[in-house]
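Re: weekly structure request thread

Next one in the queue (618 aa):
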Amino acid sequence: MGLCALLFVVVGVVPLALAGGHDYGAALSKSILFFEAQRSGYLPGNQRVKWRGNSGLYDGKANGVDLVGGYYDAGDNVKFGLPMAFTVTMMSWSILEYGNQMGATGELAHAMDAVKWGTDYLIKAHPHPHVLYGEVGDGNTDHYCWQRPEDMTTSRYAYRVDQNNPGSDLAGETAAAMAAASMVFRHANPAYSRELLTHAGQLFDFADKYRGKYDSSITVAQKYYRSVSGYADELLWAAAWMYKATNNEYYLDYLGENGDALGGTGWAMTEFGWDVKYAGVQTLVAKFLMGGKAGSHAPVFGKYQEKAESFMCSCLGKSSQNVQKTPGGLIYKQRWNNLQFVTSASFLLTVYSDYLTSARRDLHCSSGPVAPSELLAFAKSQVDYILGDNPRATSYMVGYGNNYPQQVHHRGSSIVSVKVDPSFVSCRGGYATWFSRKASDPNLLTGAIVGGPDAYDNFADHRDNYEQTEPATYNNAPLLGILARLHGGQGGYNQLLPVEVHVAKPIAAQPKPNPVKETPFAAPVAIEQKPTTSWVANGKTYYRYSAIVTNKSGKTIKNLNLSVSKLYGPLWGLTKSPSGSYGFPTWVSSLPADKSMEFVYIHAASPAQVSLSSYTLA
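Done, posted below.
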């Protein structure tokens, strides 16, 4: 343990060549499977990790509340709310950015199940607007024992924050998790999505109104998940996710008006994780800015973006304050569970690379401009290191490759399965019989990302070496998105447009619109439309259409005006004039020869009618 939307894009940008020896699709499948091994509570009938059994079935009973479910954070049997919520946020962000790629591999439903296992618990942990349970069990008594979760005899007392004992960081992160997850389920499960968003709004208000650090209220967490950064970053982080989920200007104003006071515009970070969220919120706000959403807050949002880019540059080694790297090229922050920082930083680099590509701009570092492809290439290098391209030729994902950790610091993995031998394993007996056993784990913890190597790429595969061999859910969560991106490519859409997550279950047969509609012109523009996803809400089938406008004239087009009729929903990517025609977005003035732009719209009908009204050639 330890610690919508720029709308102009050159279509057909060649994605980074992802040649290499790694099977990112297989790694994605395994990384999602790990979460099933971390489940607490009653396991479902479709549980794929068969060596696990039900556990923690009385969690919350001593407190008069049902807290059954959720995730064990790492190799122990405690449920810590702050890292669990961050895990849910990052799994959700992975799906929101790369859910279509996950769908192509058949893993989207599994990823959504993993999110829902977390959010089902977070809903239980928030029984009243100003009450949030942030821990079940405590690290001290838990670490004294080495038991399977199915056998545990340790305290399951639950700890909470409320208006008299606040926890703005915990409540803020949980609000972010629920807001992000609400978007994941918006079309697959609308009622559940609305429930999550209600909880998220209440938690944001609670976090903002009753301010304080959660570990001052839940003091038993201090030794394990101390909130070193305080709660200011979580307030901004929660506001950013609330804005993404609601489009409510209140949260955009909150980011603009509190950016300086809460540190969003001031802190130039070299880490991102369950404690320090600044780089994450800076990346999100930079997306809002590049997407033309900043409005009057553009100057402040520009300062957020400067700090986001400072983080990216520091990771790439192109800043005045660079992150440390091992001789083998791995980002190195600390000896204890270093890989958590590698996966989270790599995720930010991956999404920011795609944001920049969509915005048709470079990263600005003190050493000069950096192409977006360099960010993705570096993120790929970090993932490849984790998967085995390192001086030890060791995969730090359990079950991936031929040489991976065999003695993981993990109670459930290291003790014979209760399904194989149901004999009770006592608190101290587990240490004597299983912890000290110098042999491979009897249960394969497939997909787990362990703590990883030291500053010199060294790694000791011993169960008692918890700094290097203990896994954690928040190591894996950001990796889902990166692996989906590396396996599936960019996806063919503008990463700054509002992208809908495909429904995990097939929709019942509905009348379908034309799959492709082209509007050719003798000169100088071609328009191609196609539906990219669909969903059912309130008995009506909605479609998201992507429209690609390509300049075929051989010259640069200016003053483009399009007529869009039979449109019955929102449109992003064009500016509507007082006359009713549509032109370039305000930050774009021309369309070069042979280049394309994209706009999207959503409605419950066949494609809108798009035609060319007027234009000039430069």
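The two ends are 60 Å apart (CA to CA). DSSP finds 18 helices and 17 strands in the chain.
Next request, please.
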